[in-house]
Amino acid sequence: MVNKVAPDYEESELGVGDSTLVRAMCETFGRSEATIKQSLANGEAKDLGEVALLSRVAQKMLMMPPKLTIEKVFADMKALATASGKDSQKAKKERIQKMMVASRGAEAKYIVRMLQAKLRIGIQIPTLLQALAYAFVLTVPSQKGSSGVPDRRRGQGKFSAGDLEARMVSMEGAVKQAFCEQPNFDMVIAALMQGRDGSNLHEACHISLGIPVKPMLAKPSKGLGEVGERLSGKRFTGEWKYDGERAQVHVISRDKIFIYSRNSENMTEKYPDAIEAVKESLSEDVESCIIDAEMVAWDQEKKVILPFQALSTRGRKNIKIEDIKVNVCLFAFDCMLCNGVPLVKETLEARREKLWKMMKPIEGKVTFAVYRNFDDELKEEEVQEFLDESIAGSCEGLMLKTLTENATYEPSKRSLNWLKLKKDYIDGLGDSLDVVPIGAFYGKGRRTGAYGAFLLAVWDPENEEYQTVCKAGTGFSDEDLVTHYKFFESHKLEKPEANYNVTDKMKPDVWLEACQVWEIKAADLSISPVHTSAMGVKADGKGIGLRFPRFLRIRDDKQPEACGMLSCSQSASCLSLAASN
Ligand code: ATP
């Protein structure tokens, strides 16, 4: 249901392009590419999944292979994800053909959609975790019956209504926490199958070495006033907010160190130099640990931080230390585990003490985030002064974090106990926003031959659709425009996806797959009759649009569905800004 065959930190991309898929469909169903395209163009089928279904139903077969089982399909999908080498595309095509030949009823449709990673069942991970929790409360495993098969009884009969509800709430919390700390369905479900519940699931599924935790995130703040409101009366610390890439470092042993991104992707091969530096900086008594940090591009000669763009020029795979052109420095700011002991429930003050003992700084390679602690009585001038220092130090602003009260590490939460205070918020320009290009307009003049502007959208998790926020044509260098044009050559759509909510006035020349995230900056928000985001929130029948949007960069570390106007950090700043307009 999550349309993945493995957790994010393992090889989980199926790597099946539409061309392989179409070729497999042609051979399986005896159709030509032209008739498949025609079915899509004339509206007979909404997507390739429906083409597969219609083709399968129309096909007469003398002999049917054995029925597909979930186990077999899952194994085949896993094999697709791990296939590599010279003949792998051919082997993948044959495997797909076998699955399609054996499919019955609607199976071909879902197999094709799975292969395209567009299952369209409208289920997100939180919903699935909730469903899992309820399922395990409502069916209670008892001792194995005489046949050896567990006898599952319905929970409702066993508990009173109030008791049942309490169990569901406790189980849901436990399952969600377990998945935050150990984002691996195999492990969480295995622990549930053992009969664990809200009271003891945590004993089996907790933060562990080699399994990246979903990182703790911060809430945006609009300025010193808001910081004061939220943090006054609490002991808190300010840290420089470095503009790089989140890096979760797992030291399993001195010779086994891994680095994961904000999205739990394995970045170990990208940063062999940082791994060496961590190894060198670890204190002798540290055998294993998990450290939260920011990886920042660093100029070795001038001893200064370089902009984020410098970091993005580094390759990702198989990087050799001798070939590295852009150096990095790791700024550590938290730790979640040390020598087998989880630290997430400790206060930030205690965790930071431990972090400082775990490693020694090495100039220009590994160090700790610059910080300043503030007493419970907030003095705005002091915070302002520290903010100015951070900007002079090439940082984006400050992260303000509670030190003792409500100061545990909250995996995957966008917590009020961490506030980001960026220079831009204070300038009144607003934070940058993450959006998804879903359409493109052909360029004119100098831009002829490429796209001149793009239709940008945000994801609304409630309505499960992409809603437009602006059309953007500035901020792109000539090189950017060529890069985007080439990238989208293989991500064009014949027609908009069913979940694109676009008004007639905004129809682009070319529809694009929602497969990339862009960071943009806008001057302002306005009520818009042509855009569909937050439709009706501020004015009947009108949405919220962005004024003067400007492209900043591609964000490889974020998924399109994390760009929710209403769900993520940007929504808070956007909607409150919108409200104040
Ligand atoms: P988010 O990660 O909150 O979704 P985002 O990706 O747009 O938002 P920002 O708003 O720029 O990122 O800020 C949060 C990020 O700042 C963190 O995810 C982390 O990568 C980075 N960061 C830099 N310095 C620190 C620090 N001292 N403490 C925590 N995070 C820091």
TrEMBL record:
Location(s) in or outside the cell: Nucleus
Q: Which reaction does it catalyse?
A: ATP + (deoxyribonucleotide)n-3'-hydroxyl + 5'-phospho-(deoxyribonucleotide)m = (deoxyribonucleotide)n+m + AMP + diphosphate
Q: Where would you say this protein principally sits, based on its record? A: nucleus
Listed GO MF terms: ATP binding; DNA binding; DNA ligase (ATP) activity
EC class (word): ligase
InterPro entries hit by this protein: ATP-dep_DNA_ligase, DNA_ligase_ATP-dep, DNA_ligase_ATP-dep_C, DNA_ligase_ATP-dep_cent, DNA_ligase_ATP-dep_CS, DNA_ligase_ATP-dep_N, DNA_ligase_N_sf, NA-bd_OB-fold
The reply to whether Cytoplasm figures as a keyword in the UniProt entry is no
Question: Could you give one GO CC term from the UniProt record?
Answer: mitochondrion
What keywords were assigned to this record? ATP-binding, Cell cycle, Cell division, DNA damage, DNA recombination, DNA repair, DNA replication, Ligase, Nucleotide-binding, Nucleus
- Which PANTHER family does the entry link to? DNA LIGASE 1, DNA LIGASE 1/3 FAMILY MEMBER
Q: Which family does it belong to?
A: Belongs to the ATP-dependent DNA ligase family.
Query: What is the protein name given in its UniProt record?
Result: DNA ligase
